[in-house]
């Protein structure tokens, strides 16, 4: 469905850091499966982070000590009877590499080392583990992936995201305790990456367009919409009063089948139609064009949707994006969408 090499390009758009010089040689390397690719990206990212400096932060520590440091915990010392050992319980903050993000990285690497990735890749990862000797291991099943980033730890965003893909999408433990690599990420994780890739591609390649993943307000007559769900588009392309709303869909089956009849996913059509009509209501009497598109990742099925409809005055397209080809062909397909819906605007850009 998606060529493994193209997953690297998708990640490159989703995480701009992969376009830096240190990562560019990965774009020409051949990978047998997605796990090998993610392991290579993680190894390269760790090496870059080590050169930059491993993240440190103040970690609260409480321990029995013979030499006093920080705050003395009298009640804990009495409870533990540390005086008998000529010690006192002290609590203090230590500037340490044992941060939560470093622990995620180390735990993920140890998981990869138990898997069947290339021996050379394992050797590379083991060398990098020397710098994480003082970092503790986490239970991968209980990791909190909701991490707040700031300018001090921003460089870890891509590394932690790749760890998430490895832990959640690439590795599964077998009944005998071994770890097996899956060839591809599961549908849920690939869907998120697919959406992010399309959004970031248009942001980078078409700066004259306003590209966003915007909320669309409900067109309510009375204004009482407190109980209404939030409408948020995957990708919204805007140039002046021309809008194209793209709903990116990644399914193992692009159509639903009943009694040998293939039909479009009804929920997808309802969703994009609702987005378009509510967005159109924002313009009121102003001249405008609002269109919608369901953009499916192409599958190996014989029937692939490729249609254009006029629905209540708006154009709604259903297309498939072939991701199992050379990346230059993927760019042609995505660029063609802009040319098709913003053709007159392209002439003046």
The residue ranges in which pLDDT falls below 50 over 5 or more consecutive positions are none
E-strand count: 15
Helix % is 25-40%
Broad structural category? alpha+beta
Radius of gyration: 26 Å
Shape estimate: elongated
Largest sheet: 6 strands, mixed
Report strand %.
15-25%
Spatial order of strands in the largest sheet: 6-9-10-13-15-14
Mean pLDDT: 84
Number of helices: 10
String of helices and strands: HHEEHEHHHEEHEEEEEEEHEEEHH
N- to C-terminal distance: 35 Å
Explain what the structure shows:
- This protein is elongated.
- The protein has ten helices and 15 strands.
- With 349 residues, it is α+β, with helices and mostly antiparallel strands.
Care to give the gist of this entry?
The protein is of the alpha+beta class and 349 residues long.
Task: Describe the secondary-structure layout.
Blueprint: H1 4-14, H2 34-52, E1 57-65, E2 71-72, H3 74-80, E3 88-96, H4 100-113, H5 119-129, H6 156-170, E4 171-173, E5 179-181, H7 187-205, E6 210-212, E7 215-216, E8 231-232, E9 235-239, E10 242-249, E11 256-258, E12 261-263, H8 266-283, E13 289-297, E14 307-311, E15 314-321, H9 327-341, H10 343-346
Parallel strand pairs: 10-13, 13-15
Antiparallel strand pairs: 1-3, 2-3, 4-5, 6-9, 7-8, 9-10, 11-12, 14-15
Helix pairs in contact: 1-7, 2-5, 2-6, 4-5, 4-6
């Amino acid at each position: 469905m998606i060529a493994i090499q193209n997953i690297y390009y998708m990640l490159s758009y989703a995480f701009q850091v992969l376009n830096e010089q240190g990562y560019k040689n990965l774009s020409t390397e051949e990978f047998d499966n997605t796990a090998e690719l993610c392991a290579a990206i993680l190894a390269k990212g760790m090496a870059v982070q080590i050169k930059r400096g491993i993240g440190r932060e103040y970690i609260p520590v409480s321990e029995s000590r013979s030499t006093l440091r920080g705050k003395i915990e009298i009640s804990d010392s009495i409870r533990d009877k540390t005086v008998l050992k000529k010690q006192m319980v002290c609590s203090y903050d230590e500037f340490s590499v044992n941060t939560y993000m470093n622990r995620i990285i180390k735990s993920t690497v140890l998981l990869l080392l138990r898997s069947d990735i290339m021996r050379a890749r394992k050797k590379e990862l083991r060398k990098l583990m020397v710098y994480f000797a003082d970092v503790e291991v986490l239970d991968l099943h209980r990791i909190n992936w909701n991490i707040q980033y700031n300018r001090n730890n921003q460089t870890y965003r891509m590394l932690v995201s790749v760890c998430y893909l490895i832990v959640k999408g690439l590795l599964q433990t077998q009944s005998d305790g071994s770890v097996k690599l899956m060839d591809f990420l599961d549908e849920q994780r690939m869907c998120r990456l697919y959406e992010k890739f399309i959004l970031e591609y248009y942001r980078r390649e078409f700066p004259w367009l306003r590209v966003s993943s915007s909320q669309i307000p409900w067109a309510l007559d009375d204004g009482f919409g407190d109980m209404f769900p939030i409408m948020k588009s995957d990708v919204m392309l805007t140039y002046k009063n021309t809008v194209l709303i793209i709903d990116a869909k990644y399914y193992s089956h692009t159509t639903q089948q009943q009694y040998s009849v293939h039909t479009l996913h009804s929920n997808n059509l309802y969703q994009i139609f609702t987005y378009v009509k509510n967005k159109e209501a924002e313009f009121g009497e102003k001249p405008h064009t609002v269109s919608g598109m369901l953009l499916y990742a192409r599958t190996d099925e014989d029937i692939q949707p490729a249609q254009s409809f006029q629905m209540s005055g708006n154009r709604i397209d259903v297309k498939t994006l072939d991701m199992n080809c050379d990346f230059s062909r993927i760019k042609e397909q995505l660029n063609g969408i802009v040319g098709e819906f913003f053709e007159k605007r392209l002439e003046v850009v």
